[in-house]
Model the fold of this input.
Amino acid sequence: MIAAAFKALAGWKGYLVAGLAGAVVLGAAGAAIAWYGSSQREAGRAECQEAHRVAGLEEFKTEAERLTGLSGDLQARIDQLAATRPQVIERYTREIIQRPLPADCVRDPGRVRATNDAIDAANAARQSERAVSASSPR
Done:
């Protein structure tokens, strides 16, 4: 029976069967390579997407920490302003209400500017002292 099959494949028919078998083997090998490449591509894509998600979460974490720091700083400034408000009201009461200027006293614009500049300079100096004391370690 095997001898009859070999005899039937003798000549050009044998070459045809061998060529077809080779083509099937090459096709199967090509399909296997394509499948392997596709599966590796999908694995790489999934890995890249996961890395992108992790990077997004890290960025969110960094931004959340930055905003937490800013909110703490803002709360400290709010507390500072709340503590300063009574002092400003007391100073206004003491300087303007209890000791008003005489009725005929008129200040010229140059003196008003000089006074305002002195007040701004004093406030800036006080703010820089507070900033230094707030940033120094306790």
The radius of gyration is 44 Å.
